[in-house]
Amino acid sequence: SCALKPPKSSSSSSVSELNSLRRGCSPNAQTGRSKLQNKRATLNQQIIKQMRMRAGAENLLKATNNNKVKEMVLLELSYVNSDLQLLMGQLEGLNSSMEVYQNTEETANIPLIALGLKETKEIDFSSPFKDFILEHYSEDGRSFEEELADLMDLRQSCRTPSRSEAGVELLASYYSHLPLIESRFFSPTRQNGIFFTWYDSFTGVPVCQQNLLLEKASILFNMAALYSQIGTRSDRQTRVGLEQAIAAFQKAAGVLNLLKETFTHIPSYDMSPAMVSMLIRLMLAQAQQCLFEKMALPGVSNQFYALIRMAQEAAKVSEVFDQVHQFMIQTPIKDNVPLFWSTMSLVKTNHYRSMAHYFVAAALLDHELGPRDDEDQQEKMLSQVYDQLPEGRTPIDILKNKDERKRFGKAHIRRAVSGHEEALRIYSLCEHLTKLEALKDILKASHQRSLEKYSDFENEEEFTDYVDAPDITSKTEHRAEMEVPAATKVKVIDFFQRLGPLAIFSAKQKWTPPRSVRIYPEDRDEGFTLKGESPVQVVSLDPHCQAAGDGLKEGDYIVAVGKTDSKWMGVSEVMQLLKDVDEEGTEIQVVSLMDSNPSMPAKSATFCGNLPKTYSMICLAYNDEEKPLKNRKVTKKSSFLSWGMKNKMKSASMLNLPTMDHSGAMSWNKPIPTFPSSSCYNSDSSH
């Protein structure tokens, strides 16, 4: 939602808005989170360096026929690929650093996973936009230096948003400005030389594009990442903190879903449809975990109904994390998601499933069906716990028969014990997971509690009493749902509103330079009429009037009357200015819409070192001082009569992400995420 009508003091309003948002960022804060992001940025630069070296070596390998040179190149490639594996391992370690995102006092709850912010390069809009303002809008670009500085400051602040709602609003503000910037400066018929570079948050591979699609998608991703960090940072020892965490994870899922539906072909692994779908499920699973913790916060009452209810709630949490884990182990997601994440999801699957069995065991072993109990209600509750019971058993038999009740209770507690042991075993297999002492303590305490319950009912008739505990059906009273935050529709003021109404003065429209026409009283009264809102348009022009002889044309837009800018003025305001015209007349500035057939950049993939520039980041070969060649083809443009309609033409295309070679033939063999190389790149591949 964008406000296009300028206030009387637009400059001061923009500055005030920007300053209020800047308070939400902390670019110099030496926190654990900021240090982690700095390490991520350093790793990204090292990955670029190794990719440059590998691209050059692969080119040389193809170009030479000298066997000795080939041997040397292959040796160099092995070193480079080894370095890339080490860097990828370090990046995975950063993505596994959960402790910096957790609440410092959090020791009683299982840690949550937060997304790291995508890193980007600093961009200088100044020179390209000044040139565009001069060439396209025929205005002095130097007069917009303040607006350009505000825009660059806003983008720079978005690289280090604070972990709060203010930080989200900062990102949302820039996201809302991007459509305005796109309409003002990104023409469908020419490139402006600005390259937006973002790094994949999982692989560190840079992606570079000249349009704003990558920029918009990356800002949305970072909004979701920031919400996830707010959720992990919340104090889950309090009801308010848990509600804040639930809302944050639901909003993170909502933003990711918006990203998935809006930007479907971004050539970056972390924003591919499959990866975003998995991240949505992860955020909702963590919200469901917090909903369970909220229910358990006051304590679980040792009553039959309360225990059965909590058992099904725990089973629901186990179920959603099992679904997340199944997503994480599918190709190509498993090649890019940190092992820590999939292991944590599997630990939670086993842990909460074991808790569900423990609660059912407690309901059966600690309680008996008394004469005052509602037999029908308990039978209904227990029947909802099981999808299928062993043949010959019914819920009412289990409730009424003391031995049968005890037999099933012990079966559930055995599954609880074995499940907790499995969770501990999986925990011990992951190097990064073992660093979370709080998680280890929680898993051990849960295991010990189940063991104590089992020992209370252990006897020598174990083998004769043995029965397998059925699976527990999940059920929840409060299901985690995606929530699109209102922050994604923040209202902003166009930085470049002085250029005029965006519906008219945009990059897709082309006009003649402003020209002066002298208006006399008789022209004002009988020579022509005005229509439109802002800017006003000349209609019903008398071809014999003096203004027409001076160059005024039918359909011209009046952009200035005398020395007064009239781009934002309506008919009544312009008429008021013309009302005082004396016999000597006054000069007005007008522009005419040009109707031409501009050329359109051809859609083509550009390669550098056998890597598409849109993926490998033109950084592998791009020189800031060089201008890219422009291949063009003639494309029909909308006629003058349809100047106000939405332009259907799209600008330069994006390149789909290269896929893995399913045959397994890689330029090097490694089990960690791979980079696109000459052996696996296919120009027609899609992710």
UniProtKB/TrEMBL annotation:
Annotated ranges, domain PDZ: 516-584
Gene Ontology biological-process annotations: negative regulation of stress fiber assembly; signal transduction
InterPro entries registered for this protein in UniProt: BRO1_dom (IPR004328), BRO1_sf (IPR038499), HR1_rho-bd (IPR011072), HR1_rpt_sf (IPR036274), PDZ (IPR001478), PDZ_sf (IPR036034), RHPN1_2 (IPR047138)
Organism for this UniProt entry: Nothobranchius furzeri
Domain of life (superkingdom): Eukaryota
Protein name per the record: Rhophilin Rho GTPase binding protein 2
BRO1 domain residues: 111-502
Chain positions covered by the region annotation Disordered: 1-39
